[in-house]
Amino acid sequence: MSDTHYPALNDIDAIQQAFESAGYICTTRIATVVRLAAALEKPVLIEGPPGVGKTELAKTCAMVVDRPLVRLQCYEGLDESKALYEWKYGKQLLYTQLLKEQLGDVLDGAKGLNESMDRLHQFSDVFYSEAFLESRPLLKAMEEDNGGVLLIDEIDKADFEFESLLLEVLSDFQVSIPELGTIQAHSKPLVFLTSNDTRDLSDALKRRCLHMHIPFPSVELEARIVASRVPDLSQSMTDQLVRFVHAIRSLDLKKAPAISETVDWAKSLVLLHAKDLDGSLVQDTLNVLLKYEEDIQIAEGQLPKRIAATAGCPCQWIPSIRRAPLQAVISFWLLCSTCVGRRFLSHLPIPLMPLRWPNWWATRIVPCSKMDLRLPWQNLDTS
Asked: Residues 6 or more apart from 379 whose CB is under 8 A from it?
């Protein structure tokens, strides 16, 4: 175990403070895993839904330890030529042409085929030396003299064959190149692998890593994250926004909004000079929060209920209706600018025959300060 390479990661409380100063609000659990990864020199496999801060964790860690970040973005079909190393074929071809021009001088005075071959063989290792080697992210991270941070992003998108390629790197921090042999890391990097849980990873890969799952944050933690990233948003607006996002996540959506979308939505509301989370504003900006049209339609159907719960609106009641015979009824509706909902307030019975004046029917409610009475013909859709 070693604490000398990354002294900024020697204390859990110091890690939390340093990360928060860099704009990343991390829990004690996350700080503990980072501390252990640095001390045990083991990679960290971070799993969780998209947009919860897995990639941002590695970026912030590079900032805190003041080391270069080397990122490998995984995709289907990724192989060693894109991830590990590749020979500079263009440069080799150029040197081959130069060698052909000098071939006469090289073979001058050679006696027989064997001596000529011996003279040519001395150039074979030159073409497969480090001068002709193109380092890709995995090898580049191990070539850093003072260590660095290696981010292998979205490993679940790569093939199983690529996982096998990673085993030597993650366990021994070395790579094997047939033409050159084994290359050891100059200084072991901090390694973070991220996965969006689109497929199961191999046990061999997981065994070599510390495991951490980052779920969607609690209301309190997400409010801290939004306040940190969007300081211009008022505290009351931040609370409303975060509670609304958590309510939306409880719906049956194709893609629930992530922290990154919450932050983007908060920035949008600041740009629009929003003072309150009302229905029309939410409806106009819902596409910032949700990325699929079917999700937007589902959320729009739940807006009155979700915003009412977010703002703590007291107008959630269902009136009973009692009709008297031979009466025409005028319907009064209740509009609430907080929950953007319509609630049936009461019937006003009007007798058509003066036989018997019935008791007036009324619904008892606890009025909200933001409620407004309207008649049905005052531009109100009563459907």
From this structure: none
Residue pair 151/69 in contact by the 8 Å Cβ criterion = yes
The arithmetic mean of pLDDT across residues 261-288, rounded, is: 91
Contact 195, 154 (CB under 8 A): yes
Residue in the structure block whose two tokens are 């940190």: 228
Give the whole-angstrom CA distance, residue 193 versus residue 32: 17
Residue 76 has phi, psi (to 5 degrees) of -65, 130
What are 115's two structure tokens? 């001596």
What would the pLDDT profile of 331-378 be if each residue is shown by its tens digit?
Answer: 333 444 444 344 333 333 434 333 333 433 333 333 444 444 433 334
Distance, in Å, from the CA atom of 296 to the CA atom of 305, rounded to the nearest integer, reads 15
Backbone angles phi, psi at 78, to 5 degrees: -65, 130
Report residue 95 as tokens: 């040197």
Q: Which residue has the tokens 């929060």?
A: 289
| CA 56 – CA 374 distance, rounded (Å) | 50
The answer to whether 336 and 344 are in contact (CB under 8 A) is no
Strand order across the 210-213 sheet: 69-73, 149-153, 190-195, 44-47, 210-213
Strands 327-336 and 371-374: antiparallel
pLDDT tens, residue by residue, 315-324? 433 333 334 4
Q: How far apart are CA 38 and CA 34, in angstroms?
A: 6
User: H or E stretch including 40?
Assistant: helix 28-40
